[in-house]
Amino acid sequence: MADTGDNVHLTVEFSGGLEMLFSNRRKHSVSLPKISPKGTPVTIDFLVKYLCDHLMKDSRKDLFIMEDNVRPGILVLINDSDWELEGEADYEIQPNDNIMFVSTLHGG
Amino acid sequence: MPPSICALCTANRAVILRPKNHQKLCKPCFLITFEDEIHETITSNNLFRRGERVAIGASGGKDSTVLASVMKTLNDRHDYGLDLVLLSIDEGIKGYRDDSLDTVRQNARDYEMPLMILGYDELYGWTMDQVVEQVGKKGNCTYCGVFRRQALDRGAARLGVQHVVTGHNADDMAETVMMNLLRGDLARLSRTTSIITSTPSAAPEAKAATTEGGLPSITTIKRSKPLKYAYEKEIVLYAHHKSLLYFSTECIYSPEAFRGSARALIKNLERIRPSSIVDVIKSGEDMARLVPGNEDACANDCATNASATAAEDEVQGCGSAGGKSSESMAKMEARLRENAKAEENGLETEITSVTVEMNSLKLPNGKNKASRASDSQPRRKKKVTQQVMGTCERCGYLSSQSICKACVLLEGLNKSRPKAEIGIS
């Protein structure tokens, strides 16, 4: 998907049980404003709030976030790379990024 | 942020930050490092011997799927000479286990391993769906845990296998250490930290026991945890980067199980300092060594431990380790709150009632006879002081009591089962 106008398009994936919070769908196409209301480029932090407000139909937000952060035990992969190597929540989202949230919390 | 370079090959872009040492690795280096460490755990603990037939306890979840994959890889690469089979337990939970067993079947095809599926209905005459219908959704995890533990051993015996490996990971171990510390259960702390929970040598009497068919009896089954030092994070990343197929829906009877307190604590600690997981395990192992009177003081209990507790260490139950914590921790917390309230109101707190409560902690709220049976446990314990190893009078399973937990639970269930056949004909 190309980057059009004032929006940035990306793919968001959920696995490890998180898909159940997002209409039981693993892959979602998401379009975000390039610039957040604060006037800064959009980050993972912004994306997470956006997902909670717009994409999550399930009321159990606390299974995904905790104190406004991604819940401990949920891994975030930015284009297959550990988000800890990419600046975590401050990573600035680029066009066509693939952001994956994987829960490690579900049964072994 | 500039891309990080792999610390090992210094060529590829790093995609993984290892939680235990902050090493940055690329995908191929991570996969090989992960496998090498499991190999190291296996060899330094002498987990296997050549020609051994080993059953992999497979639930279709991430841990057992990764375990099966790594076991196959290492067995081929290092020529362990193991005969690997998959063993799955069907608890009889529609819409949950049905689906995860499909995953196990796929694993069996992918790894070219024989698969045996053993059902609770076949073993105990009760599926978990029926148990829940009987006892309700509270406390059913206790039944499931007790039944599963024996089921794996029985399944292994049927397969003619004396060694079962399970997918318990470092996070599970750290959580167990925390739980046992919080409960003050030092005896259990020392058993659950060991990588092998039951060995034939620790069960001299049982060693000789074989069934009529010459197959190993259930009392000689050895258990080990090759993933004991593997972080949950790395297990999930290994599965992801190897595109392993696993099943990750929560059990329908404990949908909130993974919110257990000990589990949340471990995850929060990991966020602050990732090495805390391994540190907690190491501390647990060290403390276990310091448990006073490892030989004498806990003769009642520990003498029979090596394998009898095999049945206990997973009592709490469900596939995800979280289930155990939330189940018993919630009760513990409720009890603590009650005590605090009682103190505030100036009520007396009877010490005896607390002990009784501790004993029945693992059992459902006294809805059936099972919990009453546990009240008599302390008395029975004294009787078996001199016994090295007990077996259940009814089923022959290893037990420190005259009747094992599964049989006690079954008795409760069967007593309340409607006897339809006695009805008017």
From TrEMBL, chain A:
Gene3D superfamilies: 3.10.20.30. CDD domains: Ubl_Urm1. GO terms for biological process: protein urmylation; tRNA thio-modification; tRNA wobble uridine modification. GO terms for cellular component: cytosol. Its main location: cytoplasm. Pathway: tRNA modification; 5-methoxycarbonylmethyl-2-thiouridine-tRNA biosynthesis. C-terminal thiocarboxylation occurs in 2 steps, it is first acyl-adenylated (-COAMP) via the hesA/moeB/thiF part of UBA4, then thiocarboxylated (-COSH) via the rhodanese domain of UBA4. There is a cross-link at G108 (Glycyl lysine isopeptide (Gly-Lys) (interchain with K-? in acceptor proteins)). Pfam families: Urm1. InterPro entries: Beta-grasp_dom_sf, Mopterin_synth/thiamin_S_b, Urm1. It comes from the Eukaryota. The modification 1-thioglycine is found at G108. It is found in: Cytoplasm. Keywords: Cytoplasm, Isopeptide bond, tRNA processing, Ubl conjugation pathway. Belongs to the URM1 family. Acts as a sulfur carrier required for 2-thiolation of mcm(5)S(2)U at tRNA wobble positions of cytosolic tRNA(Lys), tRNA(Glu) and tRNA(Gln). Serves as sulfur donor in tRNA 2-thiolation reaction by being thiocarboxylated (-COSH) at its C-terminus by the MOCS3 homolog UBA4. The sulfur is then transferred to tRNA to form 2-thiolation of mcm(5)S(2)U. Prior mcm(5) tRNA modification by the elongator complex is required for 2-thiolation. Also acts as a ubiquitin-like protein (UBL) that is covalently conjugated via an isopeptide bond to lysine residues of target proteins such as AHP1. This is Ubiquitin-related modifier 1. It comes from Eremomyces bilateralis CBS 781.70. The lineage of its organism: Eukaryota, Fungi, Dikarya, Ascomycota, Pezizomycotina. The gene is URM1.
UniProtKB/TrEMBL annotation, chain B:
The keyword tRNA processing applies. Keywords: Cytoplasm, Hydrolase, RNA-binding, Transferase, tRNA processing, tRNA-binding. It is found in: Cytoplasm. Residues 54-247 form the tRNA(Ile)-lysidine/2-thiocytidine synthase N-terminal domain. Gene3D superfamilies: HUPs. Residues 361-385 are annotated as: Disordered. It comes from the Eukaryota. SUPFAM superfamilies: Adenine nucleotide alpha hydrolases-like. Pfam families: ATP_bind_3, zn-ribbon_14. This is Cytoplasmic tRNA 2-thiolation protein 1. It comes from Eremomyces bilateralis CBS 781.70. The gene is NCS6.
